[in-house]
Amino acid sequence: MLEIRYYVKQILNFPTLSVDLQTLSLDALWFDALLTKRKENLTPIFEKPIDSLTNINSNLNIKATHAILAYVLFDPDSKIPEIDIKKLRTYLLETIPALCALVNPYTEWMKDAERAEELVRSLFHTLDLLPANETKSYFEDRFRSIDSRERIRILEQTKMAQERAKEILRQMKQKEEEEAASKYNRE
Asked: Which domain of life is it from (predicted)?
Protein backbone atom coordinates (compact mmCIF):
# COMPACT_ATOMS: atom_id res chain seq x y z
CA MET A 1 0.00 0.00 0.00
CA LEU A 2 1.00 3.57 -0.58
CA GLU A 3 0.66 6.59 1.70
CA ILE A 4 -2.80 8.03 2.23
CA ARG A 5 -1.98 11.19 0.30
CA TYR A 6 -1.64 9.15 -2.92
CA TYR A 7 -5.25 7.96 -2.65
CA VAL A 8 -6.51 11.40 -1.60
CA LYS A 9 -4.81 12.89 -4.64
CA GLN A 10 -6.53 10.31 -6.85
CA ILE A 11 -9.92 11.43 -5.57
CA LEU A 12 -9.05 15.10 -5.98
CA ASN A 13 -7.96 14.40 -9.57
CA PHE A 14 -10.91 12.14 -10.48
CA PRO A 15 -11.77 12.68 -14.16
CA THR A 16 -15.44 13.65 -13.75
CA LEU A 17 -15.85 14.58 -17.39
CA SER A 18 -14.96 11.02 -18.40
CA VAL A 19 -17.97 9.54 -16.60
CA ASP A 20 -21.57 9.83 -17.76
CA LEU A 21 -23.46 9.21 -14.53
CA GLN A 22 -26.81 9.01 -16.31
CA THR A 23 -25.79 5.89 -18.23
CA LEU A 24 -23.27 4.41 -15.78
CA SER A 25 -24.09 0.83 -14.80
CA LEU A 26 -22.79 0.12 -11.31
CA ASP A 27 -22.96 -3.62 -11.94
CA ALA A 28 -20.72 -3.29 -15.00
CA LEU A 29 -18.43 -0.86 -13.20
CA TRP A 30 -17.78 -3.16 -10.23
CA PHE A 31 -17.63 -6.32 -12.33
CA ASP A 32 -14.98 -4.79 -14.61
CA ALA A 33 -13.07 -3.28 -11.71
CA LEU A 34 -12.97 -6.55 -9.80
CA LEU A 35 -12.08 -8.48 -12.94
CA THR A 36 -9.05 -6.26 -13.58
CA LYS A 37 -7.90 -6.69 -9.99
CA ARG A 38 -8.54 -10.39 -9.49
CA LYS A 39 -7.88 -11.75 -12.99
CA GLU A 40 -10.25 -14.66 -12.50
CA ASN A 41 -13.81 -15.65 -13.24
CA LEU A 42 -16.17 -13.71 -11.04
CA THR A 43 -19.69 -14.08 -9.92
CA PRO A 44 -21.60 -10.88 -9.41
CA ILE A 45 -20.82 -9.36 -6.00
CA PHE A 46 -24.43 -8.32 -5.41
CA GLU A 47 -27.25 -10.80 -4.82
CA LYS A 48 -29.48 -8.80 -7.13
CA PRO A 49 -28.33 -6.25 -9.66
CA ILE A 50 -27.28 -3.03 -7.96
CA ASP A 51 -28.72 -1.12 -10.90
CA SER A 52 -32.17 -2.40 -9.88
CA LEU A 53 -31.87 -0.79 -6.45
CA THR A 54 -33.73 2.38 -7.36
CA ASN A 55 -32.61 4.49 -4.42
CA ILE A 56 -28.99 3.91 -5.44
CA ASN A 57 -29.47 3.97 -9.20
CA SER A 58 -31.45 7.21 -9.20
CA ASN A 59 -29.08 9.00 -6.82
CA LEU A 60 -26.27 10.58 -8.84
CA ASN A 61 -24.28 11.31 -5.68
CA ILE A 62 -24.13 7.63 -4.83
CA LYS A 63 -23.35 6.59 -8.41
CA ALA A 64 -20.56 9.15 -8.64
CA THR A 65 -19.12 8.02 -5.31
CA HIS A 66 -19.10 4.43 -6.58
CA ALA A 67 -17.20 5.59 -9.67
CA ILE A 68 -14.69 7.48 -7.51
CA LEU A 69 -14.12 4.45 -5.28
CA ALA A 70 -13.67 2.11 -8.23
CA TYR A 71 -11.15 4.57 -9.65
CA VAL A 72 -9.20 4.57 -6.38
CA LEU A 73 -9.41 0.87 -5.59
CA PHE A 74 -8.53 -0.48 -8.98
CA ASP A 75 -5.89 1.89 -10.20
CA PRO A 76 -3.01 -0.36 -11.33
CA ASP A 77 -0.49 1.79 -9.44
CA SER A 78 -2.43 1.88 -6.16
CA LYS A 79 -0.78 -1.23 -4.67
CA ILE A 80 -3.95 -2.12 -2.80
CA PRO A 81 -3.86 -5.81 -1.84
CA GLU A 82 -6.66 -8.32 -2.34
CA ILE A 83 -9.85 -7.05 -0.72
CA ASP A 84 -12.69 -8.86 1.02
CA ILE A 85 -15.62 -8.75 -1.42
CA LYS A 86 -18.24 -9.17 1.33
CA LYS A 87 -16.87 -6.18 3.24
CA LEU A 88 -16.76 -4.17 0.02
CA ARG A 89 -20.37 -5.06 -0.76
CA THR A 90 -21.50 -4.01 2.73
CA TYR A 91 -19.56 -0.77 2.43
CA LEU A 92 -21.02 0.05 -0.98
CA LEU A 93 -24.62 -0.71 -0.06
CA GLU A 94 -24.74 0.63 3.52
CA THR A 95 -21.93 3.06 4.26
CA ILE A 96 -21.83 4.94 0.96
CA PRO A 97 -25.52 5.98 1.04
CA ALA A 98 -25.04 7.22 4.63
CA LEU A 99 -21.92 9.18 3.69
CA CYS A 100 -23.55 10.62 0.57
CA ALA A 101 -26.44 11.89 2.68
CA LEU A 102 -23.92 13.93 4.69
CA VAL A 103 -21.51 14.95 1.93
CA ASN A 104 -23.63 16.35 -0.84
CA PRO A 105 -23.05 16.95 -3.76
CA TYR A 106 -20.51 14.31 -4.71
CA THR A 107 -18.16 16.98 -6.04
CA GLU A 108 -17.31 17.79 -2.40
CA TRP A 109 -15.25 14.58 -2.37
CA MET A 110 -13.15 16.03 -5.19
CA LYS A 111 -12.97 19.66 -4.04
CA ASP A 112 -12.16 19.25 -0.35
CA ALA A 113 -9.00 17.32 0.60
CA GLU A 114 -10.38 16.52 4.05
CA ARG A 115 -13.56 15.02 2.58
CA ALA A 116 -11.44 13.03 0.10
CA GLU A 117 -9.34 11.75 3.00
CA GLU A 118 -12.52 10.87 4.89
CA LEU A 119 -13.75 8.79 1.95
CA VAL A 120 -10.44 6.94 1.62
CA ARG A 121 -10.11 6.34 5.35
CA SER A 122 -13.69 5.11 5.69
CA LEU A 123 -13.10 2.66 2.84
CA PHE A 124 -9.78 1.46 4.26
CA HIS A 125 -11.30 1.21 7.74
CA THR A 126 -14.06 -1.07 6.46
CA LEU A 127 -11.68 -3.20 4.38
CA ASP A 128 -9.07 -3.40 7.19
CA LEU A 129 -6.39 -1.80 5.04
CA LEU A 130 -3.58 0.29 6.49
CA PRO A 131 -1.78 2.92 4.39
CA ALA A 132 2.01 2.98 4.31
CA ASN A 133 3.81 4.77 7.17
CA GLU A 134 0.79 4.74 9.51
CA THR A 135 0.19 2.76 12.66
CA LYS A 136 -3.23 1.31 13.36
CA SER A 137 -3.80 3.71 16.27
CA TYR A 138 -2.80 6.76 14.21
CA PHE A 139 -5.05 5.60 11.36
CA GLU A 140 -8.03 5.13 13.70
CA ASP A 141 -7.44 8.44 15.47
CA ARG A 142 -7.17 10.39 12.22
CA PHE A 143 -10.25 8.65 10.81
CA ARG A 144 -12.34 9.56 13.87
CA SER A 145 -11.16 13.17 13.71
CA ILE A 146 -12.43 13.70 10.14
CA ASP A 147 -15.43 11.33 10.05
CA SER A 148 -18.61 13.31 9.30
CA ARG A 149 -20.78 10.72 11.03
CA GLU A 150 -18.65 10.93 14.19
CA ARG A 151 -18.70 14.71 14.06
CA ILE A 152 -22.50 14.75 13.87
CA ARG A 153 -22.75 12.25 16.72
CA ILE A 154 -20.52 14.44 18.91
CA LEU A 155 -22.55 17.54 18.03
CA GLU A 156 -25.77 15.75 18.97
CA GLN A 157 -24.27 14.60 22.29
CA THR A 158 -23.09 18.15 23.00
CA LYS A 159 -26.53 19.54 22.20
CA MET A 160 -28.17 17.00 24.53
CA ALA A 161 -25.68 17.83 27.30
CA GLN A 162 -26.40 21.54 26.90
CA GLU A 163 -30.14 20.89 27.06
CA ARG A 164 -29.67 18.83 30.24
CA ALA A 165 -27.57 21.61 31.77
CA LYS A 166 -30.26 24.19 30.91
CA GLU A 167 -32.92 21.97 32.47
CA ILE A 168 -30.86 21.55 35.66
CA LEU A 169 -30.32 25.32 35.88
CA ARG A 170 -34.04 25.91 35.34
CA GLN A 171 -34.91 23.43 38.09
CA MET A 172 -32.36 25.03 40.45
CA LYS A 173 -33.76 28.49 39.75
CA GLN A 174 -37.30 27.24 40.30
CA LYS A 175 -36.28 25.65 43.60
CA GLU A 176 -34.58 28.88 44.73
CA GLU A 177 -37.71 30.85 43.86
CA GLU A 178 -39.89 28.40 45.79
CA GLU A 179 -37.58 28.64 48.82
CA ALA A 180 -37.57 32.43 48.62
CA ALA A 181 -41.37 32.45 48.41
CA SER A 182 -41.57 30.09 51.39
CA LYS A 183 -39.29 32.35 53.47
CA TYR A 184 -41.27 35.43 52.43
CA ASN A 185 -44.53 33.80 53.56
CA ARG A 186 -43.03 32.94 56.98
CA GLU A 187 -41.84 36.49 57.60
From this structure: Bacteria
